[in-house]
Amino acid sequence: MYPAIIDAYLAPTSVAEALGALGENPGATIFAGGQSVMQAIKARLVEPTCIVDLNGIAELKGVSVAAGGVTIGPMTRYADLNQETKLHGAYQAICDAATTVADRQVRNRGTIGGSICWNYLAACMPPTVLAMDAQLELTKAGGGTRTVAARDFFTGALDTARDDGELLTKISLAPPAAHAGSAYQKWSTQADGLPIIGVAVYLETDGGGSCISARMAFGGILPVTRRSPAGEKGLVGMKAGDKDGIGAALQAAADDIDPQGDRWVEGGYRKVLIKDLGRQVVTTAFKRAR
Amino acid sequence: MNKTLNIKLNGIAYQESVPIRMLLVDFIRDRAGLTGTHIGCTYEGRCGACTVRVNGDAIKSCLMLAVQAEGCEVTTVEGLATGGKPHPLQEAFNERHALQCGFCTPGILMNAAEFLEKNPNPSEQEIRHSLIGNLCRCTGYVHIVEAISDASERMR
Amino acid sequence: MADRPFHDVPLAHAPQSHWVGKNFPRKEDGRLTAGKGRYLADLHMPGMGHLVFVRSSHAHARLTRVDTKAAAGMPGVLAVITGDQLKDEINGFPLPVVVPALPANYPKFWPLAVGKVRFHGEPVAAVVALDPYQAEDAALAVEIDYDPLPVVLDAEQALKPGAPLLHEDWDDNLMFEMTFTGGQTVEEQNRNDEEVEALFQQADIIIQESFKVHRCGVSPMETRGTLAIWDDSDGLTAHITTQRPHIDRLALADVLDIPAQQVRVIAPRDQGGGFGAKAPFYREPNLVCHMARKLGRPVRWVETREEHLMAVSQERDQTNYLELAATKDGKMLAIRNRGIGDAGDGCEGVYWGYLMPFLGAALLPNAYDLPKCDIKLKVAVTNKSATSPARSFGAFPTRFAMDRAVDMLAHKLGKDPADVRRQNLVAELPYTACTGVHYDSGDFPMTWDNLIREVDLPAFRKRQEDLRKEGRYIGIGFGVGAELSGVASEVLVPMENQPGYGAATVRIDPRGKVLLFEGDAPQGQGHETSLAQVAAHEFGIHPNDVVVTTGDTGVTPFGSGTIGARAGSYTASAVSEACRFLKKKMGRIMTHDLELEAGEDDFDFQDGEIIYSKDNNIRKSFMEMSNRIIMAPLNLPEGEEAGLEHTAFFEADKPMITFSSHAAMVEVDIATGQFEFTNYVTSEDTGTVINPLIVEGQVQGGVVQGISNALYEEFVYDENGQQLTTDYENYQVATAADVPPVRVTHAGVPCPHTPMGTRGLGEGLPGPVPAALSNAISDALLPFGIEITELPLRANRIWAAIQAATQQAAE
């Protein structure tokens, strides 16, 4: 119910200050929106001695578009992302995901960066940024940065490529192609509940509406979110109206992913969801790619 | 360890030494004595009974440490009525019988107050969707949705 | 006049009431919407200690070591206590006051585990500290060694020979068994069984199915709690989140060996829901009170949601093997049922985990005319928390079974389930069900016909047919409930050793204001308003001039609690009777004062005045007469006393019921099994309605609880007895976005046995819901021949059923 004793709480106002704090306090727990980490702290699954709270760092917030692409500050809240028109079309899946996380109170605090770094099995953002092929900039105390592709970032349950002492400082998306669209949907027993399956699809089409490349990522699967090469290959050459071809691609993805069964939902049903959600997401992605 | 917290609750400034681990909801209830904000779940922060507004945003005060609200303006249900006049939501909830036991009500009022400011003309579906973070066991939600809709008309 | 039984008194001949039947906005709401409620967790006392429980991490194990040394030395800790210490300090259970007058095995237990633990979450030790955070720190420092024992988690498994034994002084895990069929003697019962068998032999159609309902309940938004204050002079004052303060008081006195007159239980003025979860006499309050006495300082325990989901609110969890015999014309002849209930560890005062399946079995025949039945019930103990009451009290699974069987019968006959249902509804009341339950009044067919009109069944069937041609599947499903309207002493004394009467004290003060005291403690039902409306109606004053005090044993008359929809039926009736007694007294004194030719009933109480009905010019203000009788009691009539205060006890002649009928409409996506309930409509007979908005709220709330239970909520234990659903992320409760709007309609008759014709409503409302929902889905999927026989309703299960049916059809 209550956290264990916490010795220190730091609220830096700049990335430099935050990195300094992390350097001085190895093993500190980082707070983004806190909607997940506070659950763990209250359940005493995590017992921080020092907290470094990023909520006061303006430079980590906001979405900007430049020649080099789209940059999303990791501390950008869901509530600000879900209406973000700069992401519309190519990267609108991120808006979709940001609209349906939990509830509006959570969306007022939760952040895209927090979700990515926490990497909970059923979270919406990890499969979404995976399908967007985001580049994740990690900066460590002392200032060194490295960039990890999303496909290398999500390493396991509640585990990512980020080391302790590193901060996620930037989420970068490639400049959108001329005809690119994406979408995300999830299914759970309750409205906007933790998904049993989440599906994110990004695709690019040629001038005539044929898919020339696709990325398809899934959430809610063990051991960790991943893409389906078979599904992606199956979409290439398809048009929005190719029901059978799209269906086959999604079947290939479902077989490829071969989702787990558990006491709640059998693997076979997860496959049904992959196909059903996938169909809706692919349709929307095609529409947005026009 | 303790830290000094400077915070405004319903317009009144507090300066208190608080344990860093103290939850914002416990500061509000136990230190400030504002017991209108309620606790309905454990660590999961799912029920929404603790919803308050921090710098205007409706958030779950059980998922924040008090020290995180340093320098913030917090409004609780006790601060919803202004100048002795009930908020249109409070009036509508009474008229529409949108509460029975009242335990979830403060959280819903604070959430709905922000929601209506951002969505002045919501549909029934939008209202229902906005209430996902607030569990109620008594009313079945029908009267709550009607009251929020009524209040939105009054507020326009 | 004064001793005429109340069921013979016609409705008060007062003129048009301002207050009964009015949507009077609740008096409670001003404070509750302003955050000025006063719930248990809002109560503080100087020097108060905070109590935290240490709960078992095993489902079944011997306790080989409970070491509190480290915990006791931690900052802020005032005391730590274990079961071994406690058993020598207080009396254990069972205690007569909380044991029903029914034959069953009653387990021995203490508020803290002694020797072994029997469910994941059983309290093992408790810490009292100056601050709840510190209490939790110390609780985590209590060291416990367990020697695990095999677990049993299924009632039928528990009844098999060789199953792990929970209570080692028992022969087996059978807690209770009962036959609900003709006769008290074995001979009579055997004869009845034969008669039922004969009916089955003659029947044209037999429906035979097992209906399984999962473990779920209605956890209220406010968890439990106790604030105990010990004073060497006054004794114990315990603020408890309880539906039954008067029962708790007696039980605490017995457990703690305190003279009853020195125990006062106060249910907080505001409680955040109960729904049965706050009705039992639980372990925890005993310990909190004991520690307050031991430490000589107030002690408060506020339950966490995790504790709540581990320890209470778990109900339903029944399997009913039901057989239904009928003619080919659809007339039901008899039912035969073997019910299995799961009591959890059964260690729970008043209900012991088995009274719910008991009542559920008694209510199985529902509103149907079934002259004969053979209903047998067994309830077993298992390594789960004791099953505790949840709204609908045992009947949620049996309503599901019965009303699904009715639809299955209709499908077999090729008839509309609505027609088969109507055909079999009890048409003549009063009626005694084959299980002995008495239905006093109502008009079931009329209430039902109203429902059919409201949903426009013929139009729905047409639309259903048209949509099927498009490959879309919609369905409509029905459920009914003949629900208890209050619980008569005739039922409650044997069942719970407690009386069923409603009681109320009405005190008029010299200013013509009214103070009303009732012993039952509400948790949101609006008693402060509805009972004020009753008094206002009777006295012709304004509800704001009536103040209602509830749930304080020190000042209220005995009440058995807010259970079984008592308020509208029994308590409101007691208020009415007490008011009428006083009105007659005022009438007699006014007659004497004004030398009128009048009887005590010749006065109308209206708009703050008492008016002689034979001459409207002769009138006195209510306030003036109150003042005269209390403050200036000179020249009173012969034999008349001063004062205007009366306590009335209302008991109906025979147990009463309230009839409710429900319809749910659904669309099912056959590709995914996903479904959406688009509409839910009820038709209710609630008799005379005091406050229509409150009644509507009760129905909507009860229906949504039923929907939440049937679709989302489920307590899950793994193979080792670890409970996996101890938070609101895993134990899913319906949100506003998950449920359809519920439309409430009325078609009823006043109850002839209550002074105002009111019926109690609230308890039974979730009962018809699971059948309405699953009948709708089965109706939608009728082309696939799918009949739902198990809850919860989940998309993946429906998808699997459609797959199986499609495969079967292909073969």
Descriptive report:
The complex is a heterotrimer of chains A (290), B (156) and C (811). Chain A is 34% helix and 24% strand. Chain A is of the alpha+beta class. Chain A folds into 3 domains: 8-53, Uridine Diphospho-n-acetylenolpyruvylglucosamine Reductase, domain 2; 60-173, Uridine Diphospho-n-acetylenolpyruvylglucosamine Reductase, domain 3; 180-289, Enolase-like, domain 1, CATH 3.30.390.50. Chain A has a 5-stranded antiparallel beta sheet with strand order 4-5-10-6-7. In chain A, strands 11-12-13-14 form a 4-stranded antiparallel beta sheet, with helices on both faces. In chain A, strands 1-3-2 form a 3-stranded parallel beta sheet, covered by helices on one side. In chain A, strand 13 (211-219) and strand 14 (226-227) form a beta hairpin. The model of chain A has no long low-confidence stretch (mean pLDDT 97). Chain B has 2 domains: 2-79, Ubiquitin-like (UB roll) (Roll); 88-155, [2Fe-2S]-binding domain (DNA polymerase, domain 1), CATH 1.10.150.120. Helices cover 33% and strands 17% of the residues of chain B. Chain B has helices at residues 24-31, 88-95, 105-118, 124-130, 142-155, and strands at 2-9, 12-19, 51-54, 57-60, 73-75. In chain B, a hairpin with a 2-residue loop joins strand 1 (2-9) and strand 2 (12-19). The relative contact order of chain B is 0.16. Chain C has 21 helices and 28 strands. Chain C starts with 28 loop residues before the first helix and ends with a helix. With 811 residues, chain C is of the alpha+beta class. In chain C, a hairpin with a 5-residue loop joins strand 16 (431-432) and strand 17 (438-439). In chain C, strands 3-5-1-12-9-10-11 form a 7-stranded mixed beta sheet, with helices on both faces. In chain C, strands 7-15-14-13-8 form a 5-stranded mixed beta sheet. In chain C, strands 18-26-27-28 form a 4-stranded mixed beta sheet, sandwiched between helices. Chain C folds into 3 domains: 6-37 and 501-650, 2-Layer Sandwich (Aldehyde Oxidoreductase, domain 4); 40-149 and 223-271 and 278-311, Aldehyde oxidase/xanthine dehydrogenase, a/b hammerhead (Aldehyde Oxidoreductase, domain 3); 315-488 and 654-810, Aldehyde oxidase/xanthine dehydrogenase, molybdopterin binding domain (Aldehyde Oxidoreductase, domain 4). Chains in contact: A-B, A-C, B-C. At the B-C interface, helix 2, helix 3, helix 4 and helix 5 of B face helix 1 and helix 19 of C.
